[in-house]
Amino acid sequence: MTQTSTPTRPGPSLPGRPKMLSHLAYVTHNVEGTVDFYERVMGMPMVSTVIGDRVPSTGDDFPYFHVFFRLADGSTLAFFEAPDLPPANPRGHPAYALFEHLAFEVDSVEIVDQWHEWLVSNGIDVVGPTDHEIIYSIYFQDPINDIRLEITTPMVENWNDRIEEAQRDLRIWTGVKNSAAEQNQPLREALMKYIQAERPDAHGETPA
Ligand SMILES: [Fe+2]
Hints:
Blueprint: E1 23-27, H1 31-41, E2 46-52, E3 64-70, E4 76-81, H2 95-99, E5 101-105, H3 109-121, E6 126-131, E7 135-141, E8 148-154, H4 163-182, H5 187-198
Parallel strand pairs: 1-4, 5-8
Antiparallel strand pairs: 2-3, 3-4, 6-7, 7-8
Helix pairs in contact: 4-5
This protein binds fe (ii) ion.
């Protein structure tokens, strides 16, 4: 067998990081209520819709209505309504309902506070404001869809540019998990012990 001398082609290279959030899509069981809430209460206009009888990416054949609401930066929040969908799977733990959420950024603490007033005047229960030191936030529930929402503003310029601290934190977190596993310690207790000893200010906050 003769050896061919095909030049080695370089593999694909990373095209760069994604530029912005185009859309985040959820299922809704009430598209009319969703349009009312996001347009009237959240101030996000409905800017695009798609009606189809099969999902283009997979070919699944069910009719659907797809709708996009636009934020000020051009990113969008999207929903799909399709007939006869059962409710989504129940969450396995109440923590999911707190941790999984969608946060909208505004320009200042004053504007977060204005949102608080506006939402309450629209009959929405609001939690907060919570000052997380790096961000200032309020939390509430999309009244139509089971989505926890947040309105937030950065309190420090570098809130989303703390790469070294993030890498250090990940190493520490992973280290505590690994040493708990090696020593056969319950993970929850090992993490609580670390947080209470090393992060005395970290407890008791509403999850960001
Ligand atoms: Fe958050």
